[in-house]
């Protein structure tokens, strides 16, 4: 286990900056800023311990807990201080820190923003942990807890962590002997591999085309990174897309990455995905982005779109939150988009059949 006098890791430094901001900026403003999106790749590098574990208990820290922790105890900044007890199923990184079957206590704060890690009693979680100030904390707040459903998703996360850990270890070993190994090709290869599986697709796609993710990118101050993919890598992504098409904001990200890569199967599956989304949920801006990218693949030039006004965006959010099954009345903006979709299908003689909807996750199984 990390010695108490050891320097803070990267996550500790970044959290320290957040704490400093919270202390210097008025509370409402400091708390309104959500955290930067983090993927399995970055969290594996920052975490000292990655575990798959059962959540056995979640409770507020008691006065006795605080007294036992002594003068270096937990000092909440954003909200109520909490404690989670995990029972380790598997250790994916940090094998020397804890053994299988052991209990582990994780400290965190209950707050609205930044969103805290999500620990749900009775569920198995993949947790990315860092040992800071003599206690275990969750890396990257809500991004640092993942809930795979079923053995297939667990295997996908296990592989994603293992591949990231191995690549990062190779770079660390190279640097220890003075070789400044470029990690970028290995990172891109990792992103392509994990993007093939629905459970880890966001982690791969966000690194490849995060700026196109309208749901998460607005929180990211780092800006877009250059995307360098070989034809073979694009073909690999296309196969994964056709086998498991996304029905969320990963859809435009995938089509963005596959720009300039002709593939009739991709075109067909993208049309089916959009048909499914249009009839099963409210229209959102990421849906329109995916639609415009599909139009481009069919040789059309999408006209620049005016961004929604604050009033239109608010009306859409209210309608979406009221019901997300497409059965309620549509806003004018949605009706206009649906009209464009119908004309697009007529022009290209498309009759896409809807895709099966994914099985709904259990309560508490949000990916972040």
Structural descriptors:
OB fold (Dihydrolipoamide Acetyltransferase, E2P); 5-stranded mixed barrel; alpha+beta; about 45% helix; about 375 residues; 2 domains; 13 helices; disordered N terminus
Describe the structure.
With 368 residues, this protein is α+β, with helices and mostly antiparallel strands. The protein folds into two domains: 10-146, Beta Barrel (OB fold (Dihydrolipoamide Acetyltransferase, E2P)), CATH 2.40.50.120; 188-347, no CATH class. It is built from 13 helices and six strands. The protein has helices spanning 10-24, 27-31, 40-46, 63-69, 151-176, 184-194, 201-209, 231-243, 250-257, 264-280, 285-297, 310-322, 332-347; strands spanning 49-60, 80-93, 103-110, 124-132, 135-138, 145-146. The protein has a five-stranded mixed barrel. Strand 4 (124-132) and strand 5 form a beta hairpin. Helix 5 (151-176) packs antiparallel against helix 6. The chain is globular.
